Amino acid sequence: MSTGVSWGLWPRYEQRIIPVTNRFDPLPQAAPMLVFGNGRSYGDVCLNAGGTLLATRSLDRFISFDATSGVLECEAGVLLSEIIALTLPRGWFLPVPPGTALVTVGGAIANDVHGKNHHRAGSFGHHLLSFELRRSSGETLRCAPDQHADWFGATIGGLGLTGMISTARLQLRRVPGEWIAGDSQRFHNLPEFFALAAQSDVAYEYTVGWLDSAASGDKLGRGVFMRGNHLQHDAPPARERSLRFPLTPPISPVTRLSVRLFNELYFRRPASQHPHAIWHYQRFLFPLDRLLDWNRLYGPRGFFQYQCVLPGAEAASALPEMLRRIARSRQGSLLVVLKQFGNLPSLGLLSFPRPGVTLALDFPNRGEPTLQLLESLDAITRSVGGAVYPAKDARMSAQSFQQYFPAWKRLQDYIDPKFSSSFWRRVTRSW
Amino acid sequence: MQRILIVGATSAIAEATARLFASRGDALFLAGRSPSRLEAIADDLKVRGANLAATYVFDARAFDRFPALLQAASACLGGLDAALIAHGMLSDQIACQRSVEQLREQFDINALSVMALCTDLANQLVSQGHGVIAVISSVAGDRGRRSNYVYGSAKAAVTAFTSGLRQRLYPQGVRVVTIKPGFVGTPMTAAFKKSALWATPASVAADIVRAMDGGKAVIYTPWFWRPLMWIVRSVPEAMFRRLRL
Ligand SMILES: Cc1cc2nc3c(=O)[nH]c(=O)nc-3n(C[C@H](O)[C@H](O)[C@H](O)COP(=O)(O)OP(=O)(O)OC[C@H]3O[C@@H](n4cnc5c(N)ncnc54)[C@H](O)[C@@H]3O)c2cc1C
Ligand SMILES: NC(=O)c1ccc[n+]([C@@H]2O[C@H](COP(=O)([O-])OP(=O)(O)OC[C@H]3O[C@@H](n4cnc5c(N)ncnc54)[C@H](OP(=O)(O)O)[C@@H]3O)[C@@H](O)[C@H]2O)c1
Fold first, then answer.
1. What does the pLDDT look like over A121-150, one tens digit per residue?
2. Is B16 a pocket residue for ligand 2 (Cβ < 6 Å)?
3. Virtual CA dihedral for B158, B161, B165, B166, nearest 10 degrees?
4. Which residues of B touch A64 (CB under 8 A)?
5. A386: part of which helix (H) or strand (E)?
6. CB-based contact B187 A23, cutoff 8 Å
7. Strands (DSSP E) along B58-188, which ranges?
8. Domains, in order of start, for chain B
9. A21 close to B (CB below 8 A)
10. Which of A391, B42, B45, B79 is the most exposed place for a label (fewest CB within 10 A)?
């Protein structure tokens, strides 16, 4: 994808792009500016209409790696996939793998990303030993849990607003190899999902549910539950190949019919019920990374992702309500992910993960009807005290954001005066 | 394990090439202008598997210091198997048209310093009877164009020089490799608008390593620049002089 465009391909803005190639250079003096990592956020947290983007992908140097302790220090533009490539052969893995490994360390911090092991490991911030924050004033702050702790907390999940993270130190986790063993099984309704999650979270590192968003009536809430643990498995190292989606079709093939068909087939395929599955970690953790640029599938108008978290007690009633609304709107989505978050409090002032169940779906951009549907989902999320994930958002209202993230005003004390983003200007408007 | 000197080691193309050397465990001696950036690159290369990554501060305009640089490299690596000369600067064509001083400085950096280094290196490698000298020239040296003929002619000098040197050193067992990249997305070209013709430093680096390992003596990278430049060279002068390239 090109620098300056986010993963949902919408919205698109004119921005000046300045590549940062040397971590010792002072920041350019170009307000308002914002760091652009690898553009894997779906909406506008990584965009800055009319302003400047500091492109950090070239800050991709490792600084040190201790194969005894698993401590890695690197520049903030290093991709998580590059970390795995370096450390997995020596027995170390990412402590928190999000759904794509093609994100930078800086982006993983700024959105405090989570993965299929949130119930065990928390989010990315929990494994950060320290990082360096460059400010437009020329200052460099070294932040750690016990050093500039307030800046540490403001920058984790800080949406890139507190300055440029130049380097970070991470604690990796030991694994026996590149394989994951577990099982997959169908669930036929949401209570079955919740039961499986509760029972699996104790014994499995990774748990996740895929949901059939086109299902309605007594099929509502059906899906496939997958869980797994890292495994000692003597197979030759696998070479995972990837394909690139070559062009943006003028009309998206993602239609009501194809969505319904895909979901039906996915649910019914034999692999959905597999008591002894062994997956390569790529397939299990980053299935979408094998099809590069898959976001083009949605056509030139792009798409939205909606990811919310609904607190435990309310989820049981709010979730079916949401699914009914989506099924009724017939704007179903190809990939719907359901995951039970754990209870470990996030470290960031504005971190998204919190106890509850998180639901993520994507919708082709059909203009006003899609926006209306998403707003109606927000009404449900608001009514139960949930939240929507900024990393995935391009449209939530200022009112919703301010309710979801009541600490937003406290972040303002830490925002670099020369930094801003399209997202931030949108969600801090007065209403 | 190869013992490799990289001159202009902070160049994006050189750094990408060094990563490939590092991942196979080579020992590297990195010469460049900025001490802090050299350190950062050396740390990275060590993490990526380099047997050794030492740094040395040098400026391409200080010709008298080149023998000391080569000595330091050999002493540190315990000998020398290959050298990659990568430093260079995209000349400000307009400034060079106005000032002979500027013109000379560009030739010092892009042509003379490279030829001086090659001369010193050649003499050292000949005495040991093996080795590789790889030099980054450019497709711009294949034909002068109005928009950058100062840079182009300096690269042309490097291309011709390495061609002659290759003949001279062939019987002595020393290989000389001339590398001609097309458009590569690096800090040098940050201001240019990119098109489908642009390559990444990583892909160019892979071609460089292949050539240094025993591939072609003159490479165009990516490969399609070879036929493209053949066409550019074939345009008759009567027509070429009218073009605004
Ligand atoms: C297929 C797919 C699956 C995903 N799955 C998950 C998932 O399971 N869990 C999850 O949490 N997220 C997930 N995401 C979202 C993704 O992990 C986040 O959006 C992540 O932040 C993207 O990182 P990036 O490097 O692309 O940063 P960008 O998207 O470019 O930027 C994200 C934010 O980080 C800031 N930033 C980036 N680098 C720096 C820096 N050096 N200093 C300061 N600020 C910086 C930017 O300013 C911006 O605010 C997924 C995304 C995709 C495309
Ligand atoms: N990029 C292209 O499209 C392209 C195409 C054809 C050929 N080339 C050639 O490829 C080589 C590498 O360039 P690049 O594209 O990787 O660009 P780059 O990253 O800008 O590298 C240029 C390098 O030259 C160094 N340098 C410049 N003047 C110097 C001096 N006086 N003394 C010492 N070092 C000096 C720079 O050092 P600092 O880092 O200290 O500035 C930098 O390391 C160059 O020879 C270039 O001419 C590039």
1. 999 999 999 999 999 999 999 999 999 999
2. no
3. 60
4. 43, 47
5. none
6. no
7. 82-85, 131-136, 174-181
8. 3-240 (3.40.50.720)
9. yes
10. B79
* Whole-number Cα distances in Å, A81 to A84, A102, B25, B196: 5, 6, 21, 25
Q: What is the C-alpha separation between A43 and A305, in angstroms, rounded?
A: 8
Is 90 exceeded by the pLDDT of residue A38?
yes
Ligand 2 atom with least separation from CA of B61: 31
Phi, psi of B157 (to 5 degrees): -60, -45
What's the CATH architecture for A179-232+241-395?
3-Layer(aba) Sandwich (3.40)
CB A175 within 8 A of CB A95: no
What would the two tokens of residue A416 be?
């670099």
pLDDT in tens, B71-96: 999 999 999 999 999 999 999 999 99
Active-site hit among B56, B149, B151, B220: B151
Identify which of B47, B48, B190 has the shortest CB distance to residue A19. B190
Residue A181, amino acid: A
ipTM of the complex: 0.96
User: Best of B186, B219, B221, B226 to mutate for ligand 2, by most ligand atoms within 8 A of CB?
Assistant: B186
Instruction: Look at B40 and A58 and tell me if their CB atoms are within 8 Å.
Output: no
- Output the six-digit token pair for B69: 């640089």
